[in-house]
Structures are given as C-alpha cells and as structure tokens.
C-alpha cells in the first residue's frame, strides 16, 4: 500500500523527483493529506497483520517486529516534514531508526535460530 500510493503520487505530482525528494515530502502541499493518510493506513494494516500472526506457533519476534514497523509508520504520520531537508528530515530519521532497529532485531533472531531439520 505504502509504495503503491507513493508511486501514484510521484507520477501525478508536478516537480517531484525521487533523486531530490524523500517519499515523506509528499506529505507537504495541498495534497499532503494523502501521504499522511497513506502512513496511517499502512501502519494500521501492518499492526493488524502483526496481531494476526501472534497465534502462529513459534512466531514470537516476527509479530513484534511487524508491530514496531507499523508503529513507526503511525509515528511518521504525526511528525512534520521540514521542506528543504530532503531525506534528512525528522520524519525520515524517526522512520529510518525504527525500521533499522526492527531489521537489526530480525537479523539477530535469524542468526540465533536453529537450522531446520529435514
């Protein structure tokens, strides 16, 4: 959802260029509410998926990491993007930090997991 709505906005927004602009900068301007809603809906859907995975046997870290990613998207919706900072705005910093932490935890969990037996 996040990328699909983002791609549609990139195509339809005059002057938007991924070489110069961060995806979160789509939340600026008169159509900015679309990207903010995109962050909110994506976050809510990811958290719902994480809740659904809680009942899967052996699924401990996956649902937690997904919930963390979803929470990061909800936070991103509430953090203002500063025009002109490119991908170094506060929103990008918050989202990148949450996503990097989730990826690090996922990698650490994968390295500690026992090899599957066939």
UniProtKB/TrEMBL annotation:
The cross-references to Pfam families, in alphabetical order and at most eight, read: DUF998
Q: Which InterPro entries match?
A: DUF998
- The answer to whether keyword Transmembrane helix applies is yes
Whether Transmembrane helix counts among this entry's keywords is yes
Q: Name the keywords, alphabetized.
A: Membrane, Transmembrane, Transmembrane helix
- Regions that span the bilayer: 33-53, 65-82, 88-108
Task: Please report the name of this protein according to its UniProt entry.
Answer: Uncharacterized protein
- UniProt organism field: Winogradskya consettensis
